[in-house]
Amino acid sequence: MNLTLHLTEACNMDCAYCTRVKQPVRMTEAVLDAACDLAFSQGKTAGLCFFGGEPLLERPLIERAVARCKQISAETGKPVSYKMTTNGTLLDADFLSLAKREDIGIGLSFEGTAQDCCRTFRDGSGSFSVVSEKAKLLLDYQPDAHAMMTVAPQAVPQYAEAVRYLYDLGFRRITGTIAYGKKVHWTDSDLELLEAQLREIAAYYAERFLHGRPFYFSPFDAKIRDCITGFNPGERCHLGFRQMPVAPDGRIYACTQFIGDADFCLGDVFGGISKERQRELAKREAVPETCRECALRKRCTNSCGCLNRLETGNENTVSPLQCTYEQMLIAIADETADRLFTADEAAFRRRYAQG
Ligand code: SF4
Ligand code: SF4
Questions:
Q1: Which of 79, 128, 144, 220 is in Cβ range 3.0-4.6 Å of 115 for a Cys bridge?
Q2: Which residues have CB under 6 Å of ligand 1?
Q3: Is residue 331 within 6 Å of ligand 2 at its C-beta?
């Protein structure tokens, strides 16, 4: 079973678009231990993602979880895998040695040269100079680490430059999403600029590919792969099934955006997950009414209940922002795929047809 452990609700940063309610609440050792046990209780493998707030504020909990899982894994023969999403400010050689030894895949929330537009410390100061040094250290230990960009309107003018910076730094896996939620306000001109920036990134992405130095950029890679290998609903995230968040108090929810909402609580780490609640939730999941006739509906993230809820308050209602963004991405990804396929069909097939 895959669980995302919200080790703390506290963070040492105060990003402009952050959707978390930050407070000094941490997971107890008893909840952590029970979560580790639960992860092994179902399925052939166990997966833990260390999350927050900022998970490295609770480093002893990570060390404890790894030690416990190692023991259970040895006893049960079930493999365990770990991931962590961090703002990177507290990374150091000691932790990175542990991460390397235990194979904890690290996703660094980092917007490159656009970092200081939104990602500030609590005193309002920028975090670029700190995180760029930590990013170099991370890449020394984990050359395949992810850089995870969240682009708010303020950062859009620097989006393409920031992607090039991250590539030059050494990241070959870059995820990119736009910022959503009540703190973020997209205007039509922001979206026009976003499209222009994505086109610039697409040109760079294609040029890297054609020079034999491709990189993964999630907005394009995901759309191109979905188109080539065919839509597989099983690969999509489904509320309350694939990756379930555990709140610091041990309650388990359908998805991160639903933490604290009793309507989406599936159980807790001590009593386990209610199958009946899972089935109820699965029944509520539907393609939004407005998308049923759309030709793009199978390539679009319209059914992401977490995102829909964040933007519209309802898990089955997609926002105009999301609709515009999805149409933009699919069009640019398809143009890019056409260009790459025409230029080098064999290389294109090797890269994308293998999923
Ligand atoms: S680092 Fe993450 S949790 Fe902390 S303020 Fe930024 S977005 Fe929120
Ligand atoms: S592009 Fe818009 S209308 Fe079409 S499936 Fe996506 S959200 Fe729905």
A1: 128
A2: 11, 13-15, 18, 20, 52-54, 87, 109
A3: no
